[in-house]
């Protein structure tokens, strides 16, 4: 039977505001997130013949935080051209989409809906007057309404890895 279900998903957002310059924070994030040739990597992963081979390839490609960059969107390019965004002109705004195919699989094997929240998004914004703001929505909060303990455990581990990296990159101690 066809149906539509609408869920309200409360999300926990961490916003870290740092005095560090944008490029220093971005470089700090990339210290933990690898930047492979994603097309070539995905082709290699698609040719894997076993889960062991697949996981070994991912492990080799991932950064120290267990993540790899899938896509970086330089939203500042759009803002620079938008006449209604003059107050944003000249400031950087990057949406980083990063993940780990093995981690995503570990969540979605228990909860297919978790695939809507992984890979993760990290938004890095250069602030007027200097400094940087980084925003991250936790995967654990996004999948909490589904009440799947196994997927939530993987999501919490992922969130810890991401937040540890973001705290290190921004120089803000974890609370």
Structure characterization notes:
By secondary structure, this protein is α+β, with helices and mostly antiparallel strands. The chain has a single domain (13-170), classed as TATA-Binding Protein (2-Layer Sandwich). The protein is 41% helix and 21% strand. It contains seven helices and six strands; from the N terminus they run E-H-E-H-H-E-H-E-H-E-E-H-H. The protein has helices at 22-30, 38-46, 51-61, 75-81, 101-108, 139-143, 149-170, and strands at residues 13-18, 33-34, 67-74, 93-99, 120-126, 132-137. The protein has a six-stranded mixed beta sheet with strand order 1-6-5-4-3-2. Helix 2 runs antiparallel to helix 3 (51-61). The longest helix is centred in the last third of the chain and has 22 residues, at 149-170. The chain is globular, with a radius of gyration of 18 Å. The relative contact order is 0.22. The mean pLDDT is 93.
